[in-house]
TrEMBL record:
It comes from the Bacteria. The keyword Transferase applies. Keywords: Transferase. This is Glycosyl transferase. GO terms for molecular function: transferase activity. It comes from Roseiconus nitratireducens. The lineage of its organism: Bacteria, Pseudomonadati, Planctomycetota, Planctomycetia, Pirellulales.
Amino acid sequence: MPDFYQHELITTIHDLQTGKLEQLEDMLRTATQQSKIGLVLPVTAADMRADPFVRILHELQHADYIDTIVVTLGVAPSEADYQETKSKTAMLGDRCRVLWTDGPQIQSLYNELIHAGIPVSTAGKGRSVWTAFGYLLADPTIDVFVLHDCDIVDYDRFLLARLCLPMVHPALDFEFCKAYYARVTDRMHGRVVRLLVFPLLRALQQLYPDSRFVQFLANFRYPLSGEFSLTRNLARTNRIPSDWGLEVGTLAEVFRNTSHKRVCQADLCRLYEHKHQSASLDNKQGGLMKMAIDILTTIYRTLASQGVVLSQDAFITLRSLYLRTAQNCIRQYAADARVNGLNYDRHGEETMIDAFASCVTTSAEMFRADPNGAEAIPNWTRVRAAFPDFADRLRDST
């Protein structure tokens, strides 16, 4: 999205339509002679069999600046799932390893941690990412860890190059880079970020104008993007949520563990398309409703950990502020869609906002009943203090 707007706290790296893939990859090949990159690809068995994953693998064959690729296979109960993943990723050669998180070897390692009081029993993307980080940390030559999803329909190496370069170029000094993009086909997608997160953050800014964390989150153009890159040190010190709060929880850890001047966001591509979650309006245990509740409770718990008092009256006010702000956004999105020739279902958007408002209340009740919630997975500093050779044994499990 070619503009020059810079937010207050973090640096924005725009796509000004001038960078060429060949130029970016030449810079990456030079930079990675000093700073090696490890790429993490969390994938389920279902996504492994889908067309986007195959496309990603073919593109990565030519990304020779990536030193190590770790495919973490989850929601894959059978040995056949593991063998099929290994067969598909064989085109990437020895630099690619498959971590089968449901397999007996890694499950045995998880059980060892659980018996020692380290909570890793909750399966999901968060645990898969955490496991891959541990695998990469056992290689002292890898300086930068990169993550992207495996259901990106229109994936190409330009996306990957723009995510990697801010972290390894010798003229730059960032410790964390978050992706942003426009999710558009014949209509606007990204309902959770457009209709929940953005208006909620504006409401929180009115309710808690002095909160630097809320201000920090509001600086991101797409806080729920699944793509980011970070330094070895942050990969070692950040805790990782195991639920749908992964993206917001990661930003909370970055806020806690590094300077805002060392954080950037990069526009990866003009358009971005991947798998869409069902709305699941009548089921708060699935689909977008579950995602919304996990995100909201993560935000509430992070604010509480920073000394913000979240009373029942505050949540009543927050819901009202959210509804008013979100309803104002409808007018803006309708205008944007009309001028860009997109379909826009105004009634459907209003219905989603009402559903998200109920999630604001439900998540508040859950927070007040259990302010701590499910524990985030401890960082690798703690794990390696308890089991100094654990990451090495994890590498031996592939």
